[in-house]
Amino acid sequence: PLAPGEAIAAPSGAFERDPQESSTTDEELSRAGGRSTTPDYGERRLPQALIIGVKKGGTRALLEAIRAHPDVRAVGTEPHFFDRNYEKGLQWYRSVMPKTLEGQITMEKTPSYFVTNEAPKRIHSMAKDTKLIVVVRNPVTRAISDYTQTLSKKPEIPTFEVLAFKNRTLGLIDASWSAIRIGIYALHLENWLQYFPLSQILFVSGERLITDPAGEMAKVQDFLGLKRIVTEKHFYFNKTKGFPCLKKPEDSSAPRCLGKSKGRTHPKIDPDVIHRLRKFYKPFNVMFYQMTGQDFQWEQEEGDQ
Fold first, then answer.
1. Mean of the per-residue pLDDT values for the chain?
2. Which class for 178: exposed (0-12), middle (13-18), buried (19 or more C-beta within 10 A)?
3. Helical spans, DSSP H, in 205-256
4. Nearest-angstrom CA–CA distance, 235 and 285
5. In this structure, what DSSP letter does residue 51 have?
6. Quick check: is 38 in a domain?
7. Staple 258 to which of 86, 242, 262, 296, CB 3.0 to 4.6 Å?
8. In sequence order, what are the residues at sequence separation of 6 or more whose Cβ sits closer than 8 angstroms to the Cβ of residue 120?
9. Is position 297 within any domain?
10. Is 18 in contact with 261 (CB distance < 8 Å)?
11. What DSSP string runs through 18-37?
12. Residue 31: CB partners within 8 Å, gap ≥ 6?
């Protein structure tokens, strides 16, 4: 099965390598901020909304879909300001943003923010009314997708099973491995709730971003205070890739589907490992549903991998 992150494409050639782990250079960012589609009028503003997570959840798909909205301007590359580039200062951060007109929203996405301890405090001190969007997805599938991505870059790494357990015989999961740790959403969310009210955070289902992209995008647009302009007519289902792709209704140009790095085939994982991981995540999932007031129904997908 394909990962939710795989749903919608960037402009062709916009990113060949996997943006999830990009260590974006200043030069790339300034190019992204000033790309040809950016008008020469308007001004660069600090973002009013951020897609803060999660890695391999569907953040690229969401970003590309929301960028189809005329009132949204977004950076294509991940600035990693609140985790890796904070010492460069807000002036630098503003300089990598696209120019906007009055009434347009500036956005960026860096999925590692959600799991970065300092990020909530830093974002809050930039602007305490910043709107935050988190794309979440079944933590078991997310972990496998994360592992698959690393494997494609480093084929020599140990198997998923070896990395997932501290002690295979005892069935002890290694929660310090980032592929597993990221999926303990309740743990990370606690950190954010110390600085932001729940009403300022929108949780998007990575699964529904595939099965009902227009429905999820309606929630996103409402949350951002935008007119519902991105609707079903922006999407069509790509049978080859197995998920929706984005088309711009105004022109008949080729639809945009996420790049080659999206939709990799997951390695076969021992069903017993999947079962143990489900058991491990279940209490955290339940806690997350209680904290957010949303049931993502990850417990009901017994058959999936």
1. 86
2. middle
3. 206-211, 213-223
4. 30
5. E
6. no
7. 262
8. 191, 192, 194, 195, 196
9. no
10. yes
11. -GGG----HHHHHHHHT-TT
12. none
Cis, bond preceding 230 (omega within 30 deg of 0): no
In sequence order, what are the residues at sequence separation of 6 or more whose Cβ sits closer than 8 angstroms to the Cβ of residue 78? 19, 22, 24, 108, 109, 110, 111
For residue 264, is it within any domain? yes
Range of the domain at 101: 43-292
CATH number for the domain spanning 236: value is 3.40.50.300
**Is position 264 annotated in a ligand binding site?**
yes
Please say whether the beta carbons of 105 and 72 come within 8 A.
yes
Q: What are the Cα distances from residue 60, in Å, to 25, 108, 173, 239?
A: 19, 11, 29, 20
259 is in an annotated binding site: no
Query: Is 145 a known ligand-binding residue?
Result: yes
Reduced to 3 states, what is the DSSP secondary structure of residue 238? strand
Instruction: Return the pLDDT at 215.
Output: 96
39: phi then psi, degrees, rounded to nearest 5: -70, 160
For 181-206, the pLDDT digits (tens) are 999 999 999 999 999 999 999 999 99
**256-303 per-position pLDDT tens digit:** 677 666 678 899 999 999 999 999 999 999 999 999 999 999 998 554
Residue 20 domain-assigned? Answer: no
| Residue 44 one-letter amino acid | R
Q: With beta carbons less than 8 A apart as the criterion, state whether 14 and 253 touch.
A: no
Q: How far apart are CA 282 and CA 122, in angstroms?
A: 31
Question: In whole angstroms, how large is the CA radius of gyration of the chain?
Answer: 19
3-class state of residue 92 by DSSP:
helix
Give percent of the chain above pLDDT 70: 80
The answer on whether 176 is annotated among ligand-binding residues is no
Active site residues per annotation: 56
Sorted by sequence, the CB contacts under 8 Å of residue 30 that are 6+ apart come out as 95, 96
Distance CA(241)–CA(260), nearest Å, equals 10
C-beta of residue 296 within 8 angstroms of C-beta of residue 285? yes
